[in-house]
Amino acid sequence: MTAKQGSTQQNVAVIGAGVIGITSALKLQQLGFKVTIFDPQGTAQGCSKGNAGHIATEQVFPLASPSTIKQIPNMLFAPQSPLSIRWRDVLSTLPWMIRFLYSARKRSFDASTRALTELNQHSLPSWETLLSSIDEEGLIKVDGSLLVFESEALFESYQQTLDALNQAGVEYQIWDQLRLRRKLPKLGLQVRYGVFFPNTGHTIEPYELCVSLNQRFQELGGKFVENGVLSLTKQGEVITENGTQQFDRIVLAAGLHSAPLVASLTGIKVPIQAERGYHVMVEKFDHELPMAVSSADRKFIMTPMKHGLRLAGTVEYGLPSAPFNRKRTELLIKQGDIMLQDGIDRRAVGDHWMGERPSTSDSLPVIDTICDDKIVLAFGHQHLGLTQAAITADLVSQLIANQPTSINVAPFTLRRFS
Length: 418
Known about the structure:
Layout: H1 3-7, E1 11-15, H2 19-30, E2 34-38, E3 54-55, H3 66-77, E4 83-85, H4 90-103, H5 106-121, H6 123-133, E5 140-141, E6 145-149, H7 152-157, H8 159-168, E7 173-175, H9 177-183, E8 193-197, E9 201-203, H10 206-219, E10 223-225, E11 229-232, E12 237-240, E13 243-246, E14 249-252, H11 258-266, E15 272-282, E16 292-295, E17 300-305, E18 308-318, H12 326-339, E19 349-360, E20 366-370, E21 375-379, H13 385-400
Parallel strand pairs: 1-2, 1-14, 2-10, 4-18, 6-16, 14-21
Antiparallel strand pairs: 3-9, 5-9, 6-8, 7-8, 11-12, 12-13, 15-18, 15-19, 16-17, 17-18, 20-21
Helix pairs in contact: 2-10, 2-13, 6-13
């Protein structure tokens, strides 16, 4: 029995309209399920709206690593560090940080690396298949991405990472200064080396990508309800402020908001933290760079997009209720001004934005089933939500259809936190 033949009477609720929820809903709708999305904010109004747009298949190493442990003093005492913790939120983030440090042990780090590598290896092919199915291949450009180095010492120290990338099967090329000048004439002259990752890409506009997916979802008969979900039941009920609806299956893809719903259903408290990422748009700068460029020295990324150049990056751990930190976006402008030969005209600076990415302590998402398979979990993708959305949608649809999964989902089990 195919999924479509067996799914015509199945009603599925998807909780969350970020890129994970929307791709999962579209995939299920294509397979013949009757799908309803619930999100009180509408389409992609959270961290899916303003991310860096990078399809980062090369990022196979979890944030919880032995090297990150050494950075913790700087995270606490240098508020403008690319990786920081809000002092005011230290006590509230402490339980998560303890689990984070525990995950940085070599054994845990290696296991998480293997899981992320397998997930990322399937990410771009899954995106290409999904976008091809709706004739929107142009929403993602597979032009590769570049990691650049100004410091020769930093580049030399990166050789160990290159060896690890080799072992993980991540393809890359070393670009010298001459090739960098030829390929990226607008890049700052202080850049000495580049590592080019050919099997990566970027979307021309993350929000428009989500809108296009949602539009196709609704054209296929999918339903979108702008209601907040108060609770779920083990029997498949979705309880909102407007009442209760019964579903055959539920997909929980609500990012940070997934954790309390999971705790109420299972008693398991997922160690998940707001990984606050910032961006600044520089209008009319979309032709400055031909691809996404990350700075190893400055820990940020510049992505050419439909409406300009997006400067993004920096990680700030804190409470979701914490106020917008303007210093983070000002730092991005300063770094971008240094990295581009002609600098940045302040008059071209547009939107300043912040999104709260759901980051688990071990950097792995939760992709699992609970309540006798009634509820499928798909959340906690940290800053790789865009990258891993399409393969996650494949896995979600396979779990809903009771089919073998494309990859082993055991590393992403909820029970690792019990």
